[in-house]
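worker-03 picked up job from queue 'complexes'. Input manifest follows; three sequence lines, order preserved.
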Amino acid sequence: MNSVGLPHFLIVGAALFALGMVTVVTRRNAVGILMGVELILNAANVNFIAFNHYVDAPGRLTGQVFSIFVIVLAAAEAAVGLAIVLAIFQTFRTIDVQETDLLRE
Amino acid sequence: MTFNANDLLGVLPAIILSIGALLLLMSEVFLSTTRAAAQAPASPGERVAQTATAPEISSTQPDRRYQAWLAAGVAALGLWAALSQLGDPAISLFNGAAMSDGFGRVVAATVCGALLISCFVAFGYLEWLRATRGEFYALTLFSAAGMCLLAQATDLIVIFVSLEVMSLALYALCAYLRRGKRPAEAAFKYFILGSFASAIFLYGAALGFGATGSTRLADIAAGVRLAATGGGPGGSAGLLFASVALLTAGFAFKVAAVPFHMWVPDVYDGAPAPVTGFMAAGVKAAAFAVLVRILVSGFGDPSSSIGPHGWQQIIVWLAALTMFFGNLLAVPQRSVKRMLAYSSIAHAGYLLVAVAAMGNAPSRPDATQGLLFYLASYGATVIGAFGVVALIERKFALAGTGDDLSSWAGLSERHPALAAAMSLFMLSLAGVPPTAGFMAKLTVFRSAIEAGLAPLAIFGVLTSVAGLYYYLRVVVYVYMVPEGRADSVPGGRVLSASIALASCALIVLWMGIMPGSFSAMIQSASGSFGR
Amino acid sequence: MEAVLFYIFAIGVVVAGAQVVLRRNPIYGAVSLVACFFFLAGIYVLLSAHLIAILQVMVYAGAVMVLFVFVIMLLNLKEEELGEMHVTTMKGIGLAAVLVLVGFIAWKALTPVQFARDMAVNEQIHGFGGVKAVGNVLYRSSVLPFEVTSLLLLVAVVSAVVIAKGKI
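worker-03 finished. Artifact:
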């Protein structure tokens, strides 16, 4: 375990964050965008848990508890987000974000 | 490690609002009896015919009029709770997870006041469209509870969770009235960019936690001080800088500062007008309260390079960009609702000026005062303006289209009182004396000059002069352009809206003519960040 | 041994995450996301966050992703409705800025970090990261966010019902 330390975990987090960003920006599919947001939330979780292990005082669990709240939020957000996607599909018959762009003049 | 009942007393406004929302939701259960009797849904053709004419309250729906009054009563109770604690000393709640101080109480009072007036605006609007449901008022109450908690939170976990309570309820409110395609689209855009912003905020919170080992703002402040003296864990200064940048970016989305403003016009345009007014007033108040708490309580140590002198520069640039582009983009708008959306971006810029002025410790009390004054005056004005829009919009909301300047032409002949109210709100948004908007801008710019940000203040004055153009254009249409189309505001159910508009107008005039009495009221808040 | 496990999990996370970006079909994306979450659970175990690892598998990979797959199936998209990757200039600039920022953060993290405390400290604490330890923190020092979370879940339920209800 000596060779693996905090930076390694942070790099995994940063990579997930970047992948999530790329997904959110390049996807035209509404469900795909939601998945990108999930990736970013998980990137934050990796950071929280890694920092909790390495930085927080021994035996403290603030970071892990924060990540539980993040998981709860992700579930709540997925429910609302997918309901909105369904509503979009009902109105526009597509979930392509380029074609749901009425309000832009 | 245990908590006592006094902690609950500190978050009383949020508790009152949540209980009210639960009561509303539960009351729906006992309503559905009358609906079953007259089932027989209208065929699509009939429904279109019904909605094309002014719809009457049909017998198929139970009477839900009590809901608006219940919600308004709860909001009034929350307002009373926030105001009654106003003079009390600041106390830390739940082991430092939240704080009950003057600043939080004034913001909570602003939110509850905005909710109270919005209930009156929404009542007539929803009844006329036959769209009253318990969920509407319950969700507004829930989101207001989230806003009150946000204003009091001093822990990143609490900030995050209550931010989401507020946001999720607002996403649903945007899509509440499903007439035409625009509400669904507005909710979708708001949701995507809002959840993206929360995710960015979260990543910033993770980095801040990593640099200091805590999510409490007080501990983060200690970590910032430590990093400034070169102590603390190595490399933590860089992490803290990235953290404050990401946290600010996350909230820049919520307050609609310029590089992060793309969602605002579409969302404000697509959401029902009463919701838009509440959103403009409430979200701004809550999000600015948190932004100030994070920046000043968390990263406010003046000795540190990542402290005020680091973020003050970011905020100054954000403010300048926001004021410039907000006013510029508002000029070509034909729809009053969209114009008000861009104007809300511009006002976020003026509020950011006050935040920037808090970077210097000596000017903090005045800047806090200015920020709170601005939030309250903007709230009253914008809810009033959207209240008028809600009256004009009713007919368009049925068809699912937007309003246009031409539908405002000749309003003064048909409804002189409405025209006068709209003009007052426009003048207040533009910052013309003797309205609240003028005094608000004055206090904010004064505190900016005091903080040594004179160029920013001058730039702000210049942009607000430019803003006069598009605000006055509405007044010109209302008073001077002859009536193009013989549309009159759909009659019926305007009494509650008139009460709301009259109270907004009174607040705007009162804050404009006697700013001292309001300032005295929020005096206890100005010391919240004083050091 | 643990280093080997870490690299397996880390590469799994990144490869599966990349699939989410690259696959056009959302079903493939969702399945790769599930895989990604499983590998992440492995990483959490390495960080002695046992409860979180379980929750990650049960709540995230289980409940949330089932919801995703369910909605994708419900929409039943045709091939032409899937949409292409789409990059405009503005988006490209934004993306580049973001990636630079991420690179900056990663670089900051890579510079000799002294705060990598000896990892064994937490592993010697009995029950660290278990249900009892996490529950103690959750119900005591985090009681306010815990209560607000109940509000959050209720709001999410009501919101989803309002949005899915259709025309009002």
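worker-03 released lock.
The CA atoms of residues 117 and 500 of chain B lie 5 Å apart.
The longest helix of chain B spans residues 364-399.
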